Amino acid sequence: MTLAEQFNRQAELKAFDIRHRNIINYNISKYEASVQKGLAQYLDHDLARSRAEYIKTHTIENLDKYLIEFEQKFTANGGKVIWAETKQDALDAIEQILNEVNATSVVKSKSMTTEEIHLNEFLEAKKIEVIETDLGEYIVQLAGQKPYHIVTPAMHLSKKDISDIFVEKLHIAPTDDAQELTLTARRLLREKYTSAQVGITGANFLIADVGGIAITENEGNARLSVTFPKVHIAIAGIEKIIPKLTDLDLFWSLLATSGTGQRLTVYNSVITAPRKAHEKDGAEQMYVILLDNGRTQLLADTQKRQALNCIRCGACLNACPVYKNIGGHTYQTTYSGPIGSVITPHYEGMKKFKHLSFASSLCGACTSVCPVRINIHNLLLLNRKESVEKGYVSKSEKWAMQLLTNTLKSRKKLDFWSSKLKNFAFQKLFKRTWGKRRTMPRVAPKSFSQLWKEQQKKQNIKQV
Fold this sequence. Notes:
By secondary structure, the chain is an alpha/beta fold. The protein is built from 24 helices and ten strands. It has three domains: 1-41 and 307-393, no CATH class; 44-293, NagB/RpiA/CoA transferase-like (Rossmann fold, 3-Layer(aba) Sandwich); 399-463. Helices cover 55% and strands 10% of the residues. Helix 2 (18-38) runs antiparallel to helix 12 and helix 16 runs parallel beside helix 19 (376-389).
């Protein structure tokens, strides 16, 4: 079964799973209400979005300049930069660092980039303990699942689901007290911070002018992950760069409001270097791995490079009617929802994931909520266009489109087919797809042109 076939099958199962839809609709409705409150802090939210769009577009178009500036500043501060063209390059670099310090345990804060390179599976295969310290990530790790949402990994789980997971995996007594579940995770994770040799994080932003990484979070687990271990590894996509430290006043608030509705997330950190001799805590060694993994190919496409402006707020997922119905796991990708459907074919292969760009109603809700004004639904159309131009369509689809095109180009050919024949064709061709869940449309007995001719004929007779 191909990925497209798996997607279609899973999408249908999830779309008609009432319990799943109730959980997702409830959780997303909470976010939507919070976001509306969060927007009240802006005198002109559209202006803020336009400024963010301008800064990100300018930065992406001058990516080489800002990445080199970041490397120079970060290296001067005592850190080390590693350039990773592929996933494997990043994994090899991480393995080498871990081997140098004889690491047996790693604590890891929330990072979609590490999910992108499948870091956990890689480390576990090397017999290295890796612990997710973000509560949502920790829950899905215990459950043996992947993150469901860019911002909220365990959005698909109810409180009872989480309790059941903790009972099975952590052997606690059953409880429906959310605070008790949180405290259980906190107690277990505390000792992991102090025993791990390496802490791994992502980076919400890379700051060129100070050579630092910015991390934003609500739990403080990222701070603990970079404070206790002797080695800190940050991995980020090359598109995460922003020019100046002062740009954070715009991007931190937009990220928080668009993602969770907060005015600002609880913990916001800027880390520019490993621990200095006079400092009491922090990593003794710090590495930043800059990941390409298809990003430069997307950068080379002038029509689609704006997708690299994404700040991973998750707003487009919460707005998307398709995502709300089929959920995050159905996409079988690190980045789900509308923006995932745009970038995944470029990161993982158009032929393999072109079906995601067709999993959209093109309603434009994703574009309307994007804090950096990415024209997401138009990029989905461009992906569709590219997949067709590269020949990633079946023969039957090609023949059907050629027949339809030739027919629609000629009024005589269109009218040649009788309404009975058209209705028969609709039933045969679309009964198992469109007609499976919907009433099939019926073609009128006469076409518009036929009715028009009859009307004109009647008028001419009257005039005579």
